[in-house]
Amino acid sequence: MEAGIVRKIIHIDMDAFFASVEQRDDVNLRNKPVAVGGSAERGVVAAASYEARKYGVRSAMPSRTAKRLCPNLIFVRPRFDVYKEVSDQIRGIFSEFTDLIEPLSLDEAYLDVTHNKIGLPSATLIAKEIRKRILEQTGLTASAGISINKFLAKTASDVNKPNGQFLIPPEDAEAYVDTLPIERFFGIGKVTADKMRQMGIFFGKDLKQYSREDLVIRFGKAGHYYYQIARAIDERPVNPNRIRKSIGAENTFSRDLVRITDVEQELKRIAGTVSGRMKRSESAGKTLTLKVKFDDFTVITRSKTIHGLIENEQDILDLIPTLLEQAELEKFRIRLLGLSVSHLNTEEEENEPVADTHGVQLTLSF
In this UniProt entry, which residues are annotated as the site Substrate discrimination (predicted)? Predict the structure, then answer.
């Protein structure tokens, strides 16, 4: 970035994306509590509509828990091919404004619009126009956060959800972070937030009282990042070439698996799915990981790293017996199996937040 120029970053986040697509395509689901994934008895919620969220239903929640919270919850099987198609359509809209697009998932992305294709100096107006075009072309709503860096933009996109946007201008950035509850900091999970509260850190202003060295001692490498964001600093660029770090697939079963032959058969199916995804992304990896969830929701993982590359289905199948042996499955009831390949040949190092720098005042309209 040129010296003296402050970046204009937008974080676009689709509103309850999977569930909203289902409600869009099935009139009978509109204005009703919907959970994508799982069933009334099995599995895990992949996404929940806003009507379901009012009852406390959230993604990654066991289906039985969700059904208990919301007895009228409607479960819908996911259609990932449709979600991918809509996501590609939305990404096409982004590309009308900038080539600096960093997708985080099917339903969210960062955009750097500092130098945008339409020559509009206001990132706020660009975000508004993007959301308008998404609604017109897909029938879906999106929320947006606008600010000077990725951390602040992502934080801002949650403020006026759903179907809204929020700006944190450069002159307000540090003051805004000072009053931000620690659990709302992107990159600080529940366990870390609990640890910080035990240290007397409840807001950004409290985090800012700790030196970089002290945070590194207490939190390891992440301490550098916490030191930066407490001061509203995040100089990671929007990376349009962001590479995924693993490729995998998993399956939750309608009935628990109790025979090793059934486990082997299901893993063969999953290996085929993973292999297909690797082929489509032209990827290979060094590490295969087996994930097993038992009927009591206990989860174990076992991994095997090789000197060569895991390139196809047979390579995966050759490693499965070793992983099963490591898992020591004897008497068991299995509700979920998964396989993933990591340490990919396409993998890059993530951009780390750089050392502390002094903020630069904005020279263009936000």
Answer: 18
